[in-house]
Amino acid sequence: xxxxxxxxxxxxxxxxxxxxxxxxxxxxxxxxxxxxxxxxxxxxxxxxxxxxxxxxxxxxxxxxxxxxxxxxxxxxxxxxxxxxxxxxxxxxxxxxxxxxxxxxxxxxxxxxxxxxxxxxxxxxxx
Length: 126
Fold this sequence. Notes:
Blueprint: H1 6-23, E1 28-30, E2 40-44, E3 47-56, E4 72-77, E5 80-81, E6 84-85, E7 91-96, H2 97-100, H3 117-123
Parallel strand pairs: 3-4
Antiparallel strand pairs: 1-2, 2-3, 4-7, 5-6
């Protein structure tokens, strides 16, 4: 079996955490069958969104290497020590494409983008 890099592990954990947290709010999300540049495709009722996921364990996140087309940037802040992850303390923030360029890059300043029912209703309107 080919080895899995630490970066691939971190990114995959972030994507899976976003899927689980979205499901808590009635949003189904899954990776596309082919790598088209988006990490997840999400649906709530009749609203579809392409989601790009950036995962970090540091106080900052990067927007380098984002695909040209996406609707939502999900920033995942992983909390843990070494190989131990505390998923219940880890945080997910949802930033619309239009807000990415002006959103803060420090995790502590992303409170308005925290995944919650209001944020879901804003990004996946009825």
